[in-house]
Amino acid sequence: MTSTPAQSFDWNALASEFAGIETITEPTQVAKLSLDYYHFSPVLQPLLEDKRGNLVVRPQTEAEVLQVARICVKHKVPLTIRGAGTGNYGQCIPLHGGVILDTTRMNGIRWIKRGKTCVEPGVKLAAFDKQARKIGWEWRMVPSTYRSATIGGFIGGGSGGIGSINYGQLRDRGNLLAVRVVTLEDEPRVIELRGDDVQKVNHAYGTNGIITELEVPLAPAYAWVEVIVIFDNFITAAQFGQALGDADGLVKKLISIHAHPIPTYFSGLKQYLPDGKHGALLTIAESCLEPFQELVREYGGEITYQKSAQDGSKGTSLAEFTWNHTTLHARSIDGTLTYLQTFFFTLERVEKLYDHFGDEVMMHLEFLRVNGQAIPAGLQLVRYTTEERLNEIIRYHEEQGAFIANPHTYILEDGGRKTIDVEQVQFKEQVDPYGLMNPGKMRGWEERE
Questions:
Q1: Residue 33 and residue 82 in contact, taking contact as beta carbons nearer than 8 Å
Q2: Does the pLDDT of residue 2 top 80, yes or no?
Q3: Quick check: 330 and 261 in contact, CB under 8 A?
Q4: What are phi and psi for residue 54, nearest 5 degrees?
Q5: Which domain of life is it from (predicted)?
Q6: Of the candidates 99, 95, 75, 68, the residue with the CA atom closest to the CA atom of residue 183
Q7: Beta bridge pairs of residue 109
Q8: How many other CB atoms sit within 10 Å of the CB of residue 267?
Q9: Please, what is the average pLDDT of the chain?
Q10: Which pLDDT belongs to residue 198?
Q11: Looking at 100-114, 125-139, 311-325, 434-448, which range is the least confident one?
């Protein structure tokens, strides 16, 4: 990367060039807007805890984004794009200082049609659903941070979430229809990507384009009911989750299975999750409740909680105890805990690893669709001791045929990809020739020579 050293640069002079665009230079605010939830990982904590930007800009229009891009290229200043900063492995943390472009002021909804929408990147997922549900639609999938997360941040740094049992992951073909991005060339321009070309910037951590607009497909908005089912045996709970995922006639949005003692970390749900029990946190279409209850009986489960669709907006959603909110709740009680992200693919593998690690790696399953099949994936809680032991745990999982999307690295390809995406690197060469966008995160760029 050819960029300006942060220490010797006149950042106040640079800030004056962003005239007309909201600019933040106050150190405490800049520090806050430099970070995400990287502290979930004890490996990332020492690597990222001192990384900060030098100033923050909050453009409201694509024209203002182009202005920011021109100034950063002119001075060869690193530029890091962020949404709400709800990621977990430093996706939006600037490794080399520079300018942080906060997209949260770009929150316009261009249009909502039957089955798809066009929005700006700063639109909050929960706020959008309130509008879309009025005409019978909602996002296909959302992270557990959906109350504060933005669609641009989710596309740039996320992978899946509530709804993935039906629609897979964000990078599956059809889950992103089109994007507009601003480049960091000598003369920045706007490029529209459609069809498979969207994968050039999908889940790229903002390393190769500033997203200014997205066209995204929607899902039918059912009357959703939240349910907790408890089980005496974890494997039975997991088998129930698989059966529900495989039940084509039962409409569902969330299948989240938690082995004891994970439910003990959910202080807001204690009356519904008795000590020693294993819990299933579920979202089911109201129209499917009767046959769903038959499935619960078949597996010997007990329904302890049910929130109607009518009461859906009241209080905390069950979704906020699932996916990586599970980790958040657990760490609020025991800060030594960390987590893994695992594709088990089969229940046999789940059972083998559950028996092998016991409470050292507490089993938390999220069912999602992969190549048309419902499969168990894990966001297990790990009782962390040393980095060496953590790597041993990861290695053992991989030796048993599980796939680990490592959450303890900020390098794009070393997390869930495992391989360099040549197309993304080539697109970066085209649109960011000086390597100014979120530098240090794309291994393919650093190693391209």
A1: yes
A2: no
A3: no
A4: -100, -25
A5: Bacteria
A6: 68
A7: 119
A8: 9
A9: 95
A10: 97
A11: 311-325
Report the predicted TM-score, pTM, of the whole model to 2 decimal places. 0.95
Tell how far CA 441 is from the center of its chain. 16
Q: CA-CA distance, 277 to 237, in Å (whole number)?
A: 10
Both tokens of 359, joined, read 């409470």
Mean pLDDT of 210-218: 98
Spatial separation of the C-alpha atoms in residues 109 and 90, rounded to whole Å: 28
* Crossing angle (nearest 10°) for helices 289-298 and 234-246: 140
pLDDT in tens, 89-112: 999 999 999 999 999 999 999 999
Tokens representing 126?
A: 């929960």
What integer pLDDT is reported at residue 5 of this predicted model?
56
User: Taking a C-beta distance cutoff of 8 angstroms, is the pair 79, 437 a contact?
Assistant: yes
Which pLDDT band holds residue 386 (cuts at 50, 70, 90)?
very high
User: What are 324's two structure tokens?
Assistant: 């990586």
Task: Give the separation between CA 315 and CA 142, rounded to whole angstroms.
Answer: 18
* pLDDT at residue 311 is higher than 90: no
Q: Facing residues of 139 across strands? A: 218
- pLDDT for residue 282: 98
Q: Residue type for 393, please?
A: I
Q: Using an 8 Å Cβ cutoff, are 192 and 89 in contact?
A: no
User: Confidence class of residue 199 from pLDDT cuts 50, 70 and 90?
Assistant: very high
* Domains of the chain with CATH codes: 109-220 (3.30.465.10), 224-404 (3.40.462.40)
Percent residues over pLDDT 90 in the chain: 94
Q: What is the signed CA dihedral for 420, 424, 429, 432, rounded to 10 degrees?
A: -120
Helix H, strand E, coil C: the string for the chain is: CCCCCCCCCCHHHHHHHCCCCEEECCHHHHHHCCCCCHHHCCCHHHHHCCCCCCEEEECCCHHHHHHHHHHHHHHCCCEEEECCCCCCCCCCCCCCCCEEEECCCCCCEEEEECCEEEECCCCEHHHHHHHHHHHCEEECCECCCCCCCEHHHHHHHCCCCECHHHHCCCCCCCCCCEEEEECCCCCCCEEEEEHHHHHHCCCCCCCCCEEEEEEEEEEECCCEEEEEEEECCHHHHHHHHHHHHHCCCCCEEEEEEECCCHHHHCHHHHHHCCCCCEEEEEEEEHHHHHHHHHHHHHCCCEEEEEECHHHCCCCCCHHHHCCHHHHHHHHHHCCCEEECCEECCCHHHHHHHHHHHHHHEECEEEEEEECCEEEEEECCEEECCCHHHHHHHHHHHHHCCCEECCCCCCCHHHCCCCCCCHHHHHHHHHHCCCCCECCCCCHHHHCCC
pLDDT of residue 415: 87
